[in-house]
Amino acid sequence: MSAYEGTGRLVRLALRRDRVQLPVWIVGSAVILAAGAAAVIDEFPDAAGRATALQGAGTSPAVLLMRGTPVGTDLGALANFRNLAFMLVLAALMSTFAVVRHTRQNEETGRAEMIGAASVGRNAGLTAALTVVLGANLVLGVALIGALVSAGLPAGGAVTFGAACAVTGMAFAGVAAVGAQLFQSARAANAFAATAVGVAYLVRGIGDALGERAADGVQVTSTWFSWVSPLGWGMLARPYGEERWWVLTLPVLLLIACVWGAFALVGRRDLGAGLIPERPGPAAASRGLLSPLGLAWRLNRASTIGWLVGSVVFGLGIGSLGDLVDDALGGNEGVSDLMGQLAGTGSAALVEAFFAAMMNVFGALAACFAVQVLLRLRSEEAGGPAEAVLATAVGRARWVGAHLTCAVGGAAAILVLAGAATGLADAAVGGDIGVLTLVGAGLAQLPAAMTVAGFVVLVFGGLPRMVVVLAWAGLVVSLACGLLGDVFGLPQAVRDVSPFTHVPAIPAVDATPGPMVGLVVVAAALAAAGMALFRRRDLSP
Amino acid sequence: MTDAISVEGLVKTFGRTRALNGLDLVVRTGEVHGFLGPNGAGKTTTLRVLLGLLRADSGRAQVLGGDPWRDATPLHRRLAYVPGEVNLWPNLSGGEAIDLFGDLRGGLDKARREELLDRFRLDPAKRCRTYSKGNRQKVALIAAFASDVELFVLDEPTSGLDPLMEAAFQQTVREVSARGATVLLSSHIFSEVEALCSKVSIIRDGVTVESGTLAQLRHLTRTSVVVEAAEPITGLGGLPGVHDLVADGARARFDVDAAHLPGVLRHLASFEVNTLTSRPPTLEELFMRHYGDAPEAAAEVPSAGASR
Ligand SMILES: Nc1ncnc2c1ncn2[C@@H]1O[C@H](COP(=O)(O)OP(=O)(O)OP(=O)(O)O)[C@@H](O)[C@H]1O
Ligand SMILES: [Mg+2]
């Protein structure tokens, strides 16, 4: 039997399962784009109006962060500016979810096992998933071209636009294919791929926001940082601007590399297993495992290490930018305003404000980590081993406390390492902020992350069935109000809801212990209330 | 304290579902007590209340002399629970899971652990992810039986075990029972309950409908009789306590309430009886009598439900 036998059948099966989902995603994207393009034609009939709008946008790094860089003043260029970033993200997410759905999720639910028994080669599942998703991206690309042309925009730019979205989607399909081999659960594989999309978006956003404005006041040249991001490549092809088709070979190369890697991994592992082939485990437990805390740490160890490595890499990348921020943008008011707004400092020295803003980002990441760890409480409870554990002499508060310790401890480690990595990289490129200052700045974010953690425990205690939705919603709200509240111009009362609003923007301002102590108290109160509620309620599957 | 478990008028609702509706249950210390009931009768719910995992709406429950909700943690040191659905951590090995449960309960007997691993033929070095349902069940059983506790609460512990392992399970229950431990065993397997349990409680729709020794339960219900005589047997249909009569001239087959058996025998004595076989109901028949989908049959014997 060849390793690919049965691929055709699996493709048909996948298409059947996706007969609603993928068409909705593709048609939905095309309709949104057509509407967006029509709106541009309607709102900005003359070139002067478009130039004014784009000049305004170009001075606001926040807009550049979210939308990318303007490439010109004609209708197509404006439609591109307003829609491309969003379309790229849609293509990427469509691809990652679909790949995971047809690979890891199949394996997890045992569907793949049934299929695997029916004379299907070991590579057939991945091949079929990629075939379907790459095909879907081609269709998506064509649909987007159709949307732009039908709105009345030139076909040439539309083709570049569609191609950029299609190959970006394909590249992320490759990323998800690797993730699906590395991680054992569909949830983790989806989280990995979605995080990759998010980080790619953020990285190119930073690169674009720091970009250099051309003399016409419209076009912006991104810094090299945007070139690090696969989502950035789609934009750097500049549809409707001075098009650079060759950039689109980058996502294709990434796709090839990822697909090669994913197949190499498939060949090395068993069905249902992760990257590491199933070695026998220890026949008896080591002492370290034999406590609620030991167990919680063991359950979170792998993902914690992943987060720590990610924080160091990200910290090194951010730290190495300090120099660039100072040199290239010292004179740009918009950038220092944005940094001041993100950091919550008003206007301060640019580099300090930049680092303070980035520490906020690390604080957000640490809070994400804490949420992810604490949601494990719920998955252990609902159809997990929590019933058996809580029927032993482990009290409920102790059990929650063990997971909470892992969440807070891990968040603290992330912040320390991220701060240290940022400081070291900054020192390496000649900055003078200081490693210890940045470690302190990182740790200053911990009370905010703890408050988010306390909120999750509260919801877990009070509304366990809704904890997943409410935890992420709470995080998004606190990030939106806290980190972007100033950028969006939200009233102070709304911004005060978020713990991140109260974190001192070190190193741009001096550390003030008051708000941090306050946050720790709030966090402890939330967690204590959550535990009390949990101790009063039924275990609910 | 001679009752390991005593429950009175337990009520537990989930939204609009009334899972327990005034349930009573007494398990004496040292007893192996069978806990029977059709799907959804409330067995698992009862056990979870007894473990303090669920909080009863009303009623009284005592476990080992303590309140299962308030004193959960200290009580759990003295008991072991095997849940109906054994969920383990995919990344941990079976041996790790056994040690972990044992240790969290307050320690386990290493020699006993090895003995049970051997008896249940479980490879402790395999990851839990790779275990079959039966093997996951064995992990929970070994973790429970390797602990030296006073009370074992077992929720359908043998679903998924093969017949060989079923025998190993029965042997193990007899061992812990011999050293004085109490066992509450929820099960759908009648042969297992008949083989192990000295007492049985049968519940339905959250209410106890029967409780007692197997002999007592049998006494409360009907005996099946088949009789053949040299002459046509008449008059049986008019006797009190006779049910489901199939009379075919000289041959008759019927069920009779235990209380009316002497009267029926006196009546039969007036015929020239050749053969007479009577058989006490099996547990399965007892059970079916309560739950067989013939409600009118249940209504015919109001006495059967009056035992609690
Ligand atoms: N968490 C819950 N939420 C809502 N209803 C529940 C919950 N747990 C149990 N029930 C309901 O309570 C009733 C009793 O369920 P229980 O699991 O105790 O039955 P059981 O006797 O253990 O059945 P089985 O023999 O199938 O294991 C059922 O109707 C069930 O649907
Ligand atoms: Mg049950």
Automatic annotation (TrEMBL), chain A:
Organism: Planotetraspora phitsanulokensis
Presence of the UniProt keyword Transmembrane in the record: yes
Protein name: Exporter of polyketide antibiotics
Keywords: Membrane, Transmembrane, Transmembrane helix
Residue ranges of the TM segments: 20-41, 84-103, 124-149, 155-176, 188-207, 245-266, 305-322, 353-375, 400-421, 433-460, 467-494, 514-534
Automatic annotation (TrEMBL), chain B:
MF terms (GO), sorted A to Z: ATP binding; ATP hydrolysis activity
Membrane-spanning ranges: none
InterPro entries xref list: AAA+_ATPase (IPR003593), ABC_transporter-like_ATP-bd (IPR003439), ABC_transporter-like_CS (IPR017871), ABC_transporter_ATP-binding (IPR050763), DrrA1/2-like_C (IPR025302), P-loop_NTPase (IPR027417)
Keywords: Antibiotic resistance, ATP-binding, Nucleotide-binding, Transport
Coiled-coil region: none
Superkingdom per UniProt: Bacteria
Keyword Transport: yes
GO cellular component: plasma membrane
UniProt xrefs under PROSITE patterns: ABC_TRANSPORTER_1, ABC_TRANSPORTER_2
Bilayer topology term: Peripheral membrane protein
Residue span, ABC transporter domain: 5-230
SMART domains recorded: AAA
A Pfam family reported for this protein in Swiss-Prot or TrEMBL: ABC_tran
Biological processes annotated in GO: response to antibiotic
Cellular localization per UniProt: Cell membrane
Cleavable signal peptide: none
Family in the record: Belongs to the ABC transporter superfamily.
Protein name per the record: ABC transporter ATP-binding protein
